[in-house]
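Dear Dr. H.,

I hope your travels went smoothly. While you were away I took the liberty of generating a structure for the chain from your last submission, since the lab meeting agenda had it listed for discussion. I wanted you to have the full record in hand beforehand rather than looking at slides cold. The sequence, exactly as received, is reproduced here:
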Amino acid sequence: MRKVGFIGAYDKADLIMYIAKMLTLVNKKVLIVDTTINQKTKYIVPVINPTISYVTEFEDIDIAIGFKTVEDIKKYLGKTENSDLNYDYILMDIDIPEAIENLDARLNFKNYFVTSFDTYSIKKGLEIISDMSGTINLTKVLYSKEMIKEEDDYLNYLSLGYKVVWSEYRIYFPIEMGDQTAISENQRLSKIKFKNLTSQYRESLMYIAEELLEGENPNILKKALKTLERGE
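The corresponding predicted structure, in token form, is as follows:
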């Protein structure tokens, strides 16, 4: 089982669901854990009679909302403390410092720091990792209109002194109205569709999914993405 953290104050719910969908199409069993303050997933994933904490299924993805630890999810699912959750991937949406410790996120297979460059997102995002008990390895996932080096330099400057080791590469997503329109339409339809997303957005999703599927044939994933792009 590979645990993956998506850390930051920027809205990550749709990004995580798109990646989860790609993983399910190559026969991976995926659980999304929404630990965020606003719990956006509760509002964009249809569910009957939601409670304070619950696990629901959406487009072959299991989604856990309102849990603080993996052990709490095990109890909800009727598993013993020493048993494993039967998932290939657990994708964690984190925007509070406590969740990093509660979920042992520093030990994850991969961790991504997701932000745009508005002042709130970048400074609040860094606040989440400011008081960790140990060092964390992070890959930058940057939402930007310009995608210029100065933005990355600014993030590096602000994070000086933090217990973070940045990956040498960055993953960029464009801030495009076309992408946001497609995402909003998918939410209204309660579907995960890719065909109306921009090519760069899809390429960045592919990059992350391929990284998470490290050691497997990338052609299988490319075939799955073509299926998604056709809206099948």
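Two observations you may find useful: The chain has one domain: 2-222. DSSP finds nine helices and eight strands in the chain.

With kind regards,
E. W.
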